[in-house]
Design a protein that fits this description.
By secondary structure, the chain is mainly α. The protein is built from 7 helices and no strands. The N and C termini lie far apart (42 Å).
């Protein structure tokens, strides 16, 4: 595992422990080296959401999805964030994208029913 991947893993550990400031620092350090690192943007977007920084969260999740449009984990997290913020059309579109690419995706199947 390379240094950047180790930082991502460390950041995820901080995120899971509720140490959001340390998680942000790890993800931002990765992005300072590779600005288009989708997983760093994805994780940073999740942390921002946990911190209540919803504009920043959406910005990072959208950017992660634009870097890796086929990454269904990112797309599900973006959809869930849209849903949480009451952005129903956007959430539904993301869940539909996931289901077109993975019809058995449990997260999307469980959540799309709220938007039909």
């Amino acid at each position: 595992m390379g240094q950047l991947e180790e930082r991502i893993e460390r950041g995820i550990g901080f995120k899971n422990a509720g140490d959001y400031a340390s998680a942000v620092a790890e993800f931002q350090a990765v992005l300072s080296e590779v600005s288009e690192y989708a997983e760093a943007r994805h994780q940073l977007g999740l942390v921002y959401g946990f911190m209540g920084l919803f504009d920043e969260s959406l910005e990072e999740l959208r950017r992660a999805a634009s870097i890796e449009p086929a990454n269904l984990n990112i797309r599900n997290d973006l959809a869930l964030t849209y849903s949480m913020l009451g952005m129903c059309e956007e959430a539904k579109a993301e869940f539909e994208f996931v289901l077109r690419n993975d019809p058995e995706n449990e997260i999307a199947k469980r959540n799309i029913q709220y938007f039909c």
